[in-house]
């Protein structure tokens, strides 16, 4: 099988074929995949059908895994589903469905932690007949197209990212226990970051970014929303319509993503592993938990 990397028309995203991720990867094959990931930031591996262990093993090649925010309930880690424990579908007004709705806004995983996630690796298990696509936006290209005045102004600015800010309207305060919430205080991240592997600059925004430190709260909140909206436009976006077994890895350090809605009476079950960012606090590493 020859490894095939097929970039689409957008500034990010490529489809990878000719590799079976159920097998351990040899060094050269992994190196090609990692290098393609750095170039394209989102890699789509169609119909891999990995078991949970295989999904974790592949993910660990990118680094240690991150613990779920439901830190005291590790068994539920990684599932994104509107199917309830009894097999019925969670109605739109339920906490489970409301929490999922939060994912339909542009975001980068775990940026409400002091060190945000490096990679997210999402696999489709049960998909609806229509809708439920995931979409990514290239924040490297979004930075590139900012005007020089804006680039210079943003250069030393820091945003406050907050779980409470982004999740409160979607039941986020009820989903977690007081102890789990106590591990998620507001944190700060520069608005412009340089990617450690590629050296490219990118805009670091998304739904968890509440406001800019030292600036007017409402004004800076509006600016963050405008930067996100303007950045997440074609040709800087790509969208994937899932089939069961598909696996996608994206780089949370330089892309935003969002889920699209689907018919509320249909099940959708995804499983995600998350690779911790470099220098993540020990308390967020799955292995030491
Ligand atoms: C995620 C996420 C969106 C989706 O897995 O982190 O935001 O389409 N998913 O399920
Ligand atoms: Mn997400």
List the helices and strands and how they pair.
Layout: E1 4-7, E2 14-17, H1 27-40, E3 42-45, H2 52-60, E4 79-81, H3 95-101, E5 117-126, E6 134-138, H4 139-144, H5 148-154, E7 158-161, H6 163-167, H7 172-175, H8 178-182, E8 187-190, E9 192-194, E10 201-203, E11 209-212, H9 217-231, E12 237-240, E13 247-251, E14 255-259, E15 269-276
Parallel strand pairs: 2-3
Antiparallel strand pairs: 1-2, 3-13, 4-15, 5-13, 5-15, 6-12, 6-14, 7-8, 7-11, 9-10
Bound molecules: N-oxalylglycine (OGA) and manganese (II) ion.
Structure notes:
25% of the residues lie in helices and 24% in strands. The chain has a single domain (4-275), classed as Double-stranded beta-helix, CATH 3.60.130. 38% of the residues are buried. It has 289 residues and is of the alpha+beta class. It has helices at 27-40, 52-60, 95-101, 139-144, 148-154, 163-167, 172-175, 178-182, 217-231, and strands at 4-7, 14-17, 42-45, 79-81, 117-126, 134-138, 158-161, 187-190, 192-194, 201-203, 209-212, 237-240, 247-251, 255-259, 269-276. The chain is built from nine helices and 15 strands.
